[in-house]
């Protein structure tokens, strides 16, 4: 048994690797990994990183299809692995629901990685869990930054319809807590909600909230009022209504090309009158005046869009 483990380690250390960067630390990951679907994925250039992970482009060796592969790189915090495992289970479960506006899962697995420890002057091996998902063209933030003028109403109408439906489906399983333009990906001609790393499950009682004491879950500049209140020490729960606020904030930004800061009035809105009501209601700071969940928000937005299409 010890010989077998030594041989596997020797094989991994002699395999071809590519360099990835997480924070200030560089890692080596195998240039090929095998997923839970039995496919071999060729790992290519790094295309992003976040609080827990690095993302690379990869190619399915079998058919040449291009995907993204997300590796857990934050290994020192004991909460990071359970959170990554939860994200992997959730994105796989959501993919089975087949919604076009949720990023799709392909496979998962583990890769043997290593980094160089300058104090010990040697390579330190460790295991990096990963999952493979759709490869996006860009983030919604990048999409708007590259668009010289306003987004056409017929484009955002279709995307808003899809995104509110995606959030409604997501809320059957979890609260996202991290909706922002960087976590809405442009895949071809559709916008898809992604990055479920901060999700809090609502369905499976076996799951638990992995938020650390004092941690403020949510995106900087796009925090819901509840998350902002938590940041100043108030005991407030982040709920489905918090996700509604974040998505409504993104919608406001898409239409007006301005962040919905401060006290908003009808004069600040540059889109169709019919859409102002649902989006402004979604942006209410008071929970009692805001939609309590994605279902109410979805119904209101879709009804407004239907009226605009029929007008």
From TrEMBL:
This is Serine/threonine protein kinase. Coiled coil: none annotated. The keyword rRNA-binding does not apply. Residues 41-311 form the Protein kinase domain. InterPro entries: Kinase-like_dom_sf (IPR011009), Prot_kinase_dom (IPR000719), Protein_kinase_ATP_BS (IPR017441). It holds the Pfam family Pkinase. PANTHER family: OVARIAN-SPECIFIC SERINE/THREONINE-PROTEIN KINASE LOK-RELATED, SERINE_THREONINE-PROTEIN KINASE CHK2. GO terms for molecular function: ATP binding; protein serine/threonine kinase activity. Transmembrane segments: none annotated. ATP binds at residue 70. Keywords: ATP-binding, Kinase, Nucleotide-binding, Serine/threonine-protein kinase, Transferase. It comes from the Bacteria.
């Amino acid at each position: 048994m010890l010989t077998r483990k030594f041989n596997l380690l020797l094989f991994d250390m002699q395999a071809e690797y590519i360099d990835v960067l997480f924070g200030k630390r560089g890692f080596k990951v195998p240039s090929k990994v095998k997923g839970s679907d039995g496919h071999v994925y060729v790992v290519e250039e790094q295309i992003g990183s976040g609080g827990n992970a690095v993302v690379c482009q990869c190619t399915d060796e079998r058919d040449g299809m291009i995907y993204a592969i997300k590796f857990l790189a934050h290994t020192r915090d004991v909460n990071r692995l359970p959170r990554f495992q939860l994200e992997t289970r959730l994105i796989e479960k959501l993919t089975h629901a087949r919604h076009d506006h949720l990023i799709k899962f392909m496979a998962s697995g583990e890769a043997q990685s290593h980094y160089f420890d300058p104090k010990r002057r040697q390579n330190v091996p460790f295991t990096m869990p990963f999952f493979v998902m759709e490869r996006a063209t860009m983030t919604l933030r990048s999409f708007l930054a590259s668009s010289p003028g306003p987004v056409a109403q017929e484009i955002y109408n279709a995307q808003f319809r899809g995104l509110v439906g995606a959030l409604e489906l997501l809320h059957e399983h979890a609260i996202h807590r991290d909706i922002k333009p960087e976590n809405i990906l442009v895949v071809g001609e559709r916008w898809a909600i992604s990055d479920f790393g901060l999700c809090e499950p609502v369905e499976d009682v076996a799951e638990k909230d992995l938020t650390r004491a004092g941690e403020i879950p949510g995106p900087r500049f796009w925090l819901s009022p509840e998350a902002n209140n938590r940041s100043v020490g108030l005991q407030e729960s982040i709920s489905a209504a918090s996700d509604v606020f974040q998505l409504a904030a993104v919608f406001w930004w898409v239409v007006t090309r301005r962040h919905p800061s401060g006290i908003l009035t009808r004069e600040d809105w540059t889109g169709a009158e019919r859409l102002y009501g649902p989006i402004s209601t979604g942006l209410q700071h008071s929970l009692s005046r805001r939609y309590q969940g994605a279902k109410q928000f979805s119904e209101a937005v879709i009804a407004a869009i239907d009226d605009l299409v029929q007008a």
